[in-house]
Amino acid sequence: MSDNELADRGAAGDADRLTGVARALLGWFAANRRDLPWRSTRDPYRILVSEIMLQQTQVDRVIPYYQAFLERFPTAAALAAAPTAEVIRLWAGLGYNRRAVNLQRAARAVVEEHAGVWPSDVAGLRALPGIGPYTAGAIACFAFERDVAFLDTNMRRVIHRVFFGPDLPSPTASERELLAVAADVVPPDEGWLWNQALIEFGALHCTARKPACVVCPLGAYCRARPAMAGAIAATPKGVRKKREEIFAGSNRYYRGRAVDALRELGGASAEIGIPLRELGPLVKSGFTEADLPWLRGLVDDLTRDGLAAVAEDAPPYHADGVDRPESGFARVRLPR
Ligand code: SF4
């Protein structure tokens, strides 16, 4: 997008403005950056682990998991060679368990299809299983120092506010527009610093509900600033509570409980699995036989996502030898 085009639609604006924004943000970052473990490495595997964990999980919670995970699986080769069940067990407490499986799939693809050499550009990284546009951009930038643009929630919010105006009660710019501006504002040869700064600024300063507009280094450049307080006041609160209420009883809630129950299996059960009808009460309170088809569907979904496996050996008490998965005799365990 040219400067003229940007000016026409009121977005990023002229080169001086872009330079001003970049200097102000990088100055703020130099004074306020947190010393996070993934900021001291350029190892693409470690960057990937951090980025996958940081999806949906707060920084403070991620740090101990990140360290424990890398202690157990210090390289992509170590992760690729591990039983999937072990990876899922180590993920306990982080939630969104598919991330653990996707992480291992990406590591296995690098080891098995790329001889252990990570692609360094966005297109190559996106071709790895489970890696979307944000993560591919983050690895290209944070491991290989490419000057690329990508947007997570924090970055998207800052770009929207500075270049388009308030994002509340709802965004006015499309993802395509935001990405186009984000690509234009990456200072040449400073992509690593710039993108780290953008993430940090969105996390600590220009937060969703309490942006510090009064003492903001970007205030002079920010299109949202004059209207931000009013936009926040006009946006209803309580969204988080509602989300939590919706979560209890949601499909994701029951999936999480099922994986938790499979993680807890010990001894022979971890190997041969647990019958569906015994798994049911661990997943849903008030579980009855009538819930078996529903539970089987849930387990099939988990199996497709690599988070569960239906044991193939027929149990001895499976009297007629007919495979009737909804009968509740099928045994389920974590994948090997
Ligand atoms: S002035 Fe307010 S809305 Fe704009 S970047 Fe700063 S904190 Fe964010």
Roughly what fraction of the amino acids lie in strands? under 5%
* Quantity of strands, as a count: 3
- Which second-level CATH architecture of the largest domain applies? Orthogonal Bundle
Q: Give the class-level CATH name of the largest domain.
A: Mainly Alpha
Give the names of the bound compounds. Answer: iron/sulfur cluster
Provide a count of the helices.
18
CATH superfamily of the largest domain: Helix-hairpin-Helix base-excision DNA repair enzymes (C-terminal)
Characterize the structure shown.
The chain is mainly α and 336 residues long. The chain folds into three domains: 3-35 and 148-233, Helix-hairpin-Helix base-excision DNA repair enzymes (C-terminal) (Endonuclease Iii, domain 2), CATH 1.10.1670; 43-142, Hypothetical protein, domain 2 (Endonuclease III, domain 1, Orthogonal Bundle), CATH 1.10.340.30; 251-333, Arc Repressor Mutant, subunit A (Orthogonal Bundle), CATH 1.10.10. The protein has 18 helices and three strands. A three-stranded antiparallel beta sheet has the order 1-3-2. Helix 3 packs across helix 4 (59-72) and helix 10 packs across helix 12. Residues 1-10 have low confidence and may be disordered. The protein binds iron/sulfur cluster.
